[in-house]
Automatic annotation (TrEMBL):
Superkingdom of this protein's organism: Bacteria
Domain Glycosyltransferase 2-like: 11-160
Family named by the database record: Belongs to the glycosyltransferase 2 family.
Record-given protein name: Glycosyltransferase 2-like domain-containing protein
Any matching Pfam family: Glycos_transf_2
Length: 245
């Protein structure tokens, strides 16, 4: 019997570089009704791929062709077959049980469901003070330049209809991928809804992100994308937890 709560197929994309110890925790949170899980391996030197396959026999594995989280996600998205694409991390910081809220936002009318640790009901156990400060400044800058009302720019938990992949037109390699998605979604006039999300601490290992190096990549992306901006930006944004009756 099919107990899926939604009439649409859902693909979950998981970029992973040396996350063998964390994958058991991550996969344990994935709802049973997910149609497809794609692990995008970043040339891991540990047992990431073997552990992932053992945990999920139907798992699809994509080996990324370049380096970086952005390249991994872009290639994972291209391989997805679901109506809806969800991106989560492999380090235990994003909780698969929240996927229901992201998909609900899409089914209720959003084109792009954007996770936010700063929306009412969200939070983070993982973000450092320096990253929090940088993220706040970069979020404000993006809102000012693009007319958006985002509360959290650099967060890796998002979902969208696969039919919008062309509009997002992703072409970056690094951690600036989330920023690029958020800007291009707004520029394409997609209906964007923020979904409050609680980011937990990475369970094992250390972050691959370097606040200054990757913060500068995000900054360059924000400034560069403005040159390609055409016409006005249409943004419909509301918080999933605050739907009006
Ligand atoms: N495939 C792949 N995954 C990556 C790469 N860099 C980071 N990731 C994954 O992206 C997710 C977020 O990375 P993480 O290092 O935790 O960065 P942070 O969450 O921003 O501190 C994790 O699942 C990582 O394993 C990469 O170059 N390739
Ligand atoms: Mg992390």
């Amino acid at each position: 019997m099919n107990s899926a709560p939604f009439a649409f197929s859902v693909s979950v994309i998981v970029p992973a570089m040396n996350e063998a110890e964390n994958l058991p925790h991550v996969f344990a949170t994935l709802p049973s009704w997910i149609d497809e899980v794609i692990l995008v391996d970043g040339n891991s030197t540990d047992d990431t791929v073997a552990v992932a396959k053992a945990l999920r026999p139907g798992l699809r594995v994509v080996t990324q062709t370049r380096r970086g989280k952005g390249n991994a996600l872009t290639e994972g998205f291209a391989a997805a077959t679901g109506d809806i694409i969800v991106m989560i991390d492999a380090d235990g910081s994003t909780d698969g049980r929240e996927i229901h809220a992201f998909v609900t936002a899409l089914v209720e009318g959003a084109d792009f469901a954007k996770g936010s640790r700063c929306a009412p009901g969200g939070g983070s156990d993982d973000i450092s003070p320096i990253r929090s400060l940088g993220n706040t400044m970069l979020t404000k800058m993006t809102n000012r330049l693009y007319g958006t009302r985002y509360t959290d720019l650099c967060y890796g938990y998002n979902a969208f209809w696969a039919r919008h992949l062309d509009a997002l037109d992703l072409d970056c390699d690094g951690f600036e991928i989330e920023t690029l998605m958020n800007i291009r979604a707004a520029q394409a006039g997609l209906v964007i809804r923020e979904v409050p999300s609680h980011e937990r601490s990475r369970i094992h290992g250390a972050s691959n992100l370097h606040a200054v190096r990757d913060g500068l990549r995000v900054l360059r992306t924000i400034l560069r994308e403005r040159e390609g901006r055409v016409g006005g930006v249409r943004l419909h944004q509301e918080h999933a937890g605050h739907a009006t009756a």
